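job 3f2a | input accepted
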Amino acid sequence: MQEILFDYKLNPTTWAYLSSLLMIGMYFKFHRFWSVRNLDLVALIGISPGLLLIYYGLANHAPGQVQGGYVWLFGISGFFLIRLLIDPIMVRRPLLEPNLSVSGLTFTGVALLVFLMANIVKSPPERLESYLAKQAAPAQPNPGLSFFYQFAGFSSKAMIPVDGTQPEVFRRQEIQVASARSTAILGHLAVVIGMVLVGYRHFDNIHTGVAAATLYLLTFYTSQMTGQVDHVVPAALLVWAVAAYRRPMIAGVLMGIAVSVIYYPWFLLPLWCGFYWRRGVVRFIIGVVLALAIMIAWLAISTGTWETFWPQLRLMLGFRNPLEVVSSGFWAFHEKAFRYPVLAAFVALCCSLALWPPQKNLGTLLSCSAAVMLATQFWHANNGGLYIAWYLPLLILTIFRPNLEDRVALTAVYDLRWPWRRNRAAKIQTAPSTT
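job 3f2a | predicted structure (435 res):
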């Protein structure tokens, strides 16, 4: 950006202040000071101090600041986890539109998108992702598709100009870096478009969708981790799975891809199967299995040998003891024995969401999906707490959503049964009661 806007430099602290002021000016409801919306907005702004502590702790080699940053993020995450779990019982949801019109929000969102994407195209400025990239690689990789994490690491490397005197390896590295950064740009575009589509199609309010997407771009986290492919690609898959919830097969395919690349969406399957139980569960499971089969076949073809394929498959499916992984981030500073009750509580939460609440709607699907992906951060071994993009778009959509009690699978999901079976079911539902 400095080649276009001379002396342009925006350090993380300055952007944390500016983004917080913009978020308050655009979304804070001054005439309803004690509303839940304002509390959510303050909590979103509260993520910034934790990220700043980690940023300056890594920059100045101060482990105490880094530890304080992770503790702060865990505290904010704990608040949001409780907020998301009680969201299904919050029936009264008045329409609180932003303080800016849809035209103003659209212009602001497009401008933010251009500036953030420009930071990806150019060598990234000093951001948290830059310091995380300089850290040593974890002793054991994240569960998921190892090729995906290797590809994601290219986005933090420096671009090397190509000329006739350079060897082929440099030319290949430049293609890899450009591909990774292009994927990050497309991932953010997919998240933004998906959030707008959810607001337009499922909330019946384009203003709400644009407001949610703009808030996602305004958050301090998005500016700091813009180029991280392993953050944004799973977020895009989950947002579009929600956007396609009326089509269980498509939602299942998207969920299956997300499961294969980062593993953690496995724990969303009980919730989503519970949502589709009365209609669409078979199609959803077929979609997940089909996507997994395609990804496993691609992995087998790309590895070539059984000795290479089997360890990669075990890693993709998460077949390892999560308590024996060498930790970085929060659990590098605290007693790892505490991960046992945290992991047990997480598994209990995921299993209980298959049964509770018994009548699941789109609002439940949004809030509980965000809760599960947020809860993974409490036991995630590598920089747990920093993968905020995995739940941030769903969290923001939950904050803005209207009452969606009528969006249940039985009425919202497309019925693919034979016409005579659909007519019979409709007659049973509309038949007058004899009692």
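job 3f2a | The chain is about 65% helix and 0% strand.
job 3f2a | closed
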